[in-house]
Amino acid sequence: MGKPEANIETLWGELARLSEAGELRRLSCAFARFVASLGAAPPALVLACAVLSELEGHGHSCVQLSDLGAGPAELLGWSDEQWKDLARAAGPLPKTARAWAAQLAACAQVWETGSFDYDQPLVLDGERLYLRRYWRDETLVAQAVRERAAQVREVDAGSVRAWLDVLFASQRAAEKPDWQKLACAIALRGSVAIITGGPGTGKTYTVARLLALLFATAPEAANQRIALAAPTGKAAARLKQSIDRALNELADKVGSRLPLRELTLRMGAARTLHSLLGARPDSRAFAHHRGNPLDVDVLIVDEASMVHLEMMASLLDALPPSATLVLLGDKDQLASVEAGAVLGDLCHDAQAGAYDASTCDYVRAASGEALPGEFRGNGGPLAQQTVMLRHSRRFGGPIGQLALAVNEGDAVRAEAVLRAGEAGVRWIENAQQQHVLQLAQSGYGAYLEVLKAGPAAGAGPAAHEDWVRRVLQRFESFRILCAVRDGEWGVAGLNDAVAGRLAQAGLLRPAGEWYVGRPVMVTRNDYGTGVYNGDIGLTLPDPGRPGALRVYFLEGETVRSVLATRLRNVETAYAMTVHKSQGSEFRHTVLALPRERGAILTRELVYTGITRASEQFTLVSPAGAVLAEAIALRTHRTSGLREMVAPAAR
Ligand SMILES: Nc1ncnc2c1ncn2[C@@H]1O[C@H](COP(=O)(O)OP(=O)(O)OP(=O)(O)O)[C@@H](O)[C@H]1O
Is the CB of 205 inside a 6 Å radius of any atom of ligand 1? Predict the structure, then answer.
């Protein structure tokens, strides 16, 4: 181990310098200090702690010791020189992952899995070093998913096939095999299923048929408790609306053979995961957990790509073993803001399929679909319960082509689609901020027009609510998305500039913090007022109190409101980050890229931005090369989940 103590003060000095320069979170230094205070701390341990905590801030759930050996400059968003300076200050460091493991395992603050556990703050699992909380969450998710995936139910394949033929009748599959049909058959036999696919590939359409199938084949169908949930209120409302619509359409088709309208009525509203699990103010713990499990038989979770590791662990902990979990989401979208890339990790084999012989036989018997050779393989149990829908019904045109090119990392093709400027796609290159402001003026002009017209004169509360709904719906048809928060091309700069422009054009009269027409986004859950992080509302006059303002929120068709002055954690929302836009869709979406590239500007971010657009997509970029650079940069999140779920996949 050399003489590590000799370098420790130099290392603390270098860490403090990096922290003061804004290259390292204060928290990362403080965490390293805390660990060092618990026992002898050689420089390798101090350095590993600072890096681990820093990477957690970038969404990684652990650090690979091989990355520590090779130098994690890129993961940290540092230059090689910066890392070398820090490593030099630490003195001689282990060179290989194995040597790192040996040094760390010798420290009293590190629990090496398999050894006696003293509840140390750090966990060494093979060649990955974790903060204990993330190790616990990752282990819980992996174990729960493995156990669920291994639990395959006995299914009457003949009956399933007959029902699938009814539910998918009159449909000529746009592709062979019919992945939607196949997904229903696969989800029905397991206690976990993942249905992934890009926008408009029919995830909700499929899950509505899955529910009908369950209803038709479950032994005690009438008593099945079905719950719908999503990470945000908006996504939950969208899920419920789409499922209700699909089930009502189906009800007409199947008629008296299946009482589907009853099912729709019995299902109840979709909820946010926070509300489903019973979030409590000022506590990370939920009311539901394995000691007080959720009262459900089937749980459908939409927008699963937004679910972070800790939330997924809480969800799986609270789900009774007998219940079926169906995760829906687009594995290629941005991962959650918080640590983890759970859906991406769980969908490792989704593209390839990797279905084994037993799945192929079952699928053929239960759905009549034959799995082509290219999708056969030897994936683990979870791969057998995962289906990727591959054909978009909504995104056939240029927006879809653009999304596909970006997703495949083909910058040349993406630029060609953007330059062709066909059917709703436009690229403003070498743009000035003025270009975004012009788009904002015409885009937001629509809701401001309805706002200005006001509710019908002399009309009562119902007319007021109808007017509010129309203003909110118009507002939802246009949005500016940013990659970054700060600067001229960031959320803060654009929000100020857009408000100024709308005021200048006489469309708004901003006066102080709260003014009629101000759109706001909630930035923190507030259980008192019932508004949650990510909720977007509009400030409008309170019909009951002249001069007072309320913020109105739309969930599906339902309008609710809160007195403006009661909302404390909000920010203006003409422009929002792509991250915050997940789970939403706008008729016209404008994506503003910054002048310079950065670690945050990735392929997944551009793809997520494009796929928020339903009819029109405009890319605005001040510097040409940034798009191609972003497309080339993939999000990488270090985690052990994939390997824990399917150890053989290594
Ligand atoms: N097999 C099908 N036959 C006919 N229409 C379909 C089929 N599959 C999906 N659709 C239609 O395509 C549209 C998109 O489907 P759906 O909303 O289920 O997609 P999604 O993958 O859930 O989309 P999102 O990513 O936006 O949540 C809907 O209008 C739906 O009715």
Answer: yes
**516 CB-near residues (< 8 Å, 6+ apart):** 451, 508, 509, 539, 540, 541, 549
For residue 207, the ligand 1 atom closest to its alpha carbon is 18
In the predicted model, is pLDDT for residue 4 greater than 60?
A: no
pLDDT tens string 119-158: 889 999 999 999 999 999 999 999 999 999 999 888 899 9
State the pTM of this model.
0.90
Question: Residue 225 Cα, ligand 1 centroid: separation in angstroms?
Answer: 25
Shortest CA distance to 385 belongs to which of 147, 201, 630, 641?
A: 147
Tokens of 99: 């040597």
Residue 211 has pLDDT above 80, yes or no: yes
Q: Interface pTM (ipTM) of the complex?
A: 0.98
DSSP string, 125-162: ETTEEEEHHHHHHHHHHHHHHHHHHH-BPP--HHHHHH
Q: Looking at residue 234, what is its pLDDT?
A: 81
Query: Which residue is closest in CA terms to ligand 1's atom 23?
Result: 200
Phi, then psi, of 206 in degrees rounded to 5:
-70, -45
Pick the atom of ligand 1 nearest to 242's CA.
17
Give the percent of the chain with pLDDT over 70: 97
Can you tell me which residue has the tokens 């001069």? 547
Mutate to test the pocket of ligand 1, among 181, 204, 243, 589 (most ligand atoms within 8 A of CB): 204
Residue 201 in contact with ligand 1 by CB distance below 6 A: yes
